[in-house]
Amino acid sequence: MAIRVLLVDDQPLLRTGFRMILEAEGDLAVVGEAGDGLQAIDQVRALQPDVVLMDIRMPRMDGVEATRQITGPGKDGPAKVLVLTTFDLDEYVVEALRAGASGFLLKDAPAAELVQAIRVVAAGEAMLAPSITRRLLDKYADHLPSGEEPVPDALHTLTDREVEVLKLVARGLSNAEIAADLFVSETTVKTHVGHVLTKLSLRDRVQAAVYAYESGLVRPGAQ
After folding, report:
1. Mean pLDDT throughout 74-86?
2. pLDDT tens digits for 124-143?
3. Tell me, what's the pLDDT at 7?
4. Is-contact 59 11, C-beta < 8 A?
5. What gap in Å lies between CA 108 and CA 57, rounded to an integer?
6. What's the angle, vertex CA 124, arms to CA 118 and CA 125, rounded to 5?
């Protein structure tokens, strides 16, 4: 079945461009469009898309709040949010990730990258390019723990291997890359990631990555 996509952007010309790119792919179907966050929420309820391409800065309701209402705490619908931003260091991106977005992508990314990002997010993975993620986290380093704070109790529920996996997730590695790094199978990695999300009450890999930095488990710029 085709991946159902909702386009959310306040610029009609951009929505038209995205639609042309996506409708050229046999496994993607654009099921609707919205010009602001409020419309996006209504369209998600009505159309039940698999992936929402969400602009950040829009009138009436921005993409961060819309993302929070679509995928935030207590929301268990199927829609995943892929945030679109003009700037790779947009200050709103971190808030969107905290709100429940499954990743972010630059608006000027190549068409092939946009298509692949939608497929990755629809499959339940996170679209976290390590280089951009690191620059974002480095920018916000002053707002992250210094490493001297006590480790959250929840981290103590993880096994040593689960902690290793969480650190690699925070670096933006895919399941395949983590498997190669730890010399285990992808299936084993998926199991570990599932345990981490369950034990820490996190929705997905993006929230796990943010948690790893906010808890001080991983430091910006660290390997």
Report:
1. 78
2. 776 665 555 556 556 555 55
3. 96
4. no
5. 16
6. 75
- Between 205-214 and 186-199, two packed helices, what is the crossing angle to 10 degrees? 60
Residue 5 near residue 31, CB atoms below 8 Å: yes
Predicted confidence (pLDDT) per residue in 150-207, tens digit: 556 778 899 999 999 998 888 778 788 899 999 999 899 989 999 998 898 887 777 7
Amino acid letter, residue 37: G
Q: How many whole angstroms separate alpha carbon 17 and alpha carbon 9?
A: 11
Here the tokens at position 93 are 């991106």
| Beta-carbon count within 10 A of 41 CB | 19
pLDDT at 145: 47
Residue 199 and residue 156: Cα distance in Å, rounded? 10
What are the helix (H) ranges across the chain? Answer: 12-23, 37-47, 63-71, 91-99, 111-122, 130-139, 160-170, 175-182, 186-199, 205-214
* Tokens linked to 15: 């929505």
